[in-house]
Amino acid sequence: MSLPVCIYGYGNLGSHLFSYLDGFEGIQLSLISSNRLFHDDSRRAHVEELREGTLVFLCVPDSVVNDLIDQIPDNCIPIICSGAVHIPESMNKSIGVWYPLYSFKQGHKVDWKKVPVFCEANGKEVEGVLQSLNRILGKTAFWIDSVSRSKLHLGAVFANNFTNALLMATEDVLSDFSKEEVLNALYPIINQTITRWEEGEAKQFQTGPAVRGDRETIDSHLEMMNNYIEEKNLYILMTEYINKKMNK
């Protein structure tokens, strides 16, 4: 018997998750979304028509998750897909978590074998259903509580979102170079920064003018950024942060 799964939302995460789950036998898949990019009307669903026992993956903004949980029929199981939203203790219904800790963007392929998934359930029945789903997917999930998941999400914001923002700043201050020139010059050191993190704590690998207290170089950099106010302020903040952390 197929496991009924419905994806609620067809944005960055929802579209990738739908494509991923669609490749497995043993899953009966449907979608709740008004997104016109999804053309298979035969698999569009409505909340009130969901089959009993359906796992409803809430691939929506965090701010509306709790409201949608309240709208899901009691004979279905809402599944939180967010890192920041806790299972609400005030709701007397079965709720689960299936959180893929990754960065999803429409149009960019995802290797799901590399995506860690974190699960949680507020009851044995939900836990069993999620374990069945993970067996179908061949996925080994990590079971953690909402507080730990929120902390990992915070870490992901620093490690991914803020790192990407620093790459945006890099592109801005090097706007007079071509993308190819920037990649040729900086990709090796960017790759080194990430790969050697496996070898120890980040602090032991920190280098640069802020660590050395090289005021002359820092001032020179700041002067170069007189026309890049946001990046200049970011440079100042990061320099102060590094200096304080390395001199504790």
Commentary on this structure:
- This protein is 44% helix and 13% strand.
- It is of the alpha/beta class and 248 residues long.
- It folds into two domains: 3-144, NAD(P)-binding Rossmann-like Domain (Rossmann fold, 3-Layer(aba) Sandwich); 149-246, N-(1-d-carboxylethyl)-l-norvaline Dehydrogenase, domain 2 (Orthogonal Bundle).
- Strands 2-1-3-4-5-6-7 form a seven-stranded mixed β-sheet, sandwiched between helices.
- Strand 6 (117-121), helix 3 and strand 7 form a beta-alpha-beta unit.
- The termini are far apart.
- The mean pLDDT is 95.
Relevant terms:
248 residues; alpha/beta; Rossmann fold; N-(1-d-carboxylethyl)-l-norvaline Dehydrogenase, domain 2; 2 domains; seven-stranded mixed sheet; 7 strands; 44% helix
Sequence-ordered SSE layout with sheet pairings:
Elements lengths: L2 E6 L3 H10 L5 E6 L22 E4 L6 H7 L5 E4 L15 E5 L16 E5 L2 H14 L4 E2 L2 H28 L5 H17 L13 H4 L2 H10 L4 H18 L2
Parallel strand pairs: 1-2, 1-3, 3-4, 4-5, 6-7
Antiparallel strand pairs: 5-6
